Amino acid sequence: MSDSYFPVGPGLGMEENFLSLDDILMSQEKLPGRAESALPRLAVLLGQGAGSAESIPEGSKLEIPLWLAKGLHDSKRRIISVELPKIYKEAWRTVFSADANVVDLHKMGPYYYGFGSQLLNFENPENPEIAQTTFIARFRRIMDSSQNAYNEDTSALVARLDELERALFQVGQKGLNDFQCWEKGQASQITASSLVQNYGKRKLAEVDA
Q1: pTM summary value
Q2: Most CB within 10 Å of its CB: which of 9, 169, 175, 208?
Q3: How far apart are CA 88 and CA 14, in angstroms?
Q4: Among 11-20, 106-115, 164-173, which is the least confidently predicted range?
């Protein structure tokens, strides 16, 4: 019996995949901002009014869902301005650079990396620093842990990871389990991962072209 739902991966970088449940959930995360002009009939949507006809006055402080902030953001018309959430500001980046491995990213934001990538859609002088996230510093520890935790309880470790890191950890665990099965004669052969296979297909297509 086939599955009724095939998981769709999130988009890459500043692009979203609107078929991905992870990206749909991420787009609901809120950004602090300010109305640079009056926003007609948006008061109810942003929780600042009771009637559907109410407008948000110019200068009002806002908490805007990412999907709406991207829709309203226009560098020429200045409809809204968006601020960095505190976990992406310099003070927190300093904490990450001191010891990224001890930070509980899931508590701070389950889609920390994906949401941070989306912030690059808005003009901010700190964008270059935001782009240089803690991912590389944490990647080695995550993969080492996934390769050295065979048949162990990893719930405490996984609880501290954001969704992207959790997916990487699961890939590492699957690779370890497949190898252990092969060593015990419980698998006929070791096969290349789907990532490697897809890369090979693209290279062949380039050669044929």
Answers
A1: 0.68
A2: 169
A3: 16
A4: 11-20
Q: Where do the domains of the chain lie?
A: 1-83, 85-208
3-state secondary structure string, 13-55?
Answer: CCCCCCCCHHHHHHCCCEEEEEECCCECCCCCCCCCCCCCCCC
> What CATH fold (topology level) applies to the domain 1-83?
Methane Monooxygenase Hydroxylase; Chain G, domain 1 (1.20.58)
Fold of 85-208: Methane Monooxygenase Hydroxylase; Chain G, domain 1 (1.20.58)
User: Reading across the β-sheet that carries 61-65, which strands appear in turn?
Assistant: 61-65, 30-35, 80-82
Q: Is the Cβ–Cβ distance between 56 and 39 less than 8 Å?
A: yes
The tokens for 56 are: 């948000």
Q: What contacts 18, CB < 8 A, 6 or more positions away?
A: 24
Q: What is the SS3 assignment for 82?
A: strand
The residue written with tokens 């899931």 in the block is 106
Return the number of other C-beta atoms located less than 10 Å from residue 136's C-beta.
Answer: 9
Q: What share of the chain is helix, strand, coil (3-state, %, to 5)?
A: 50, 10, 45
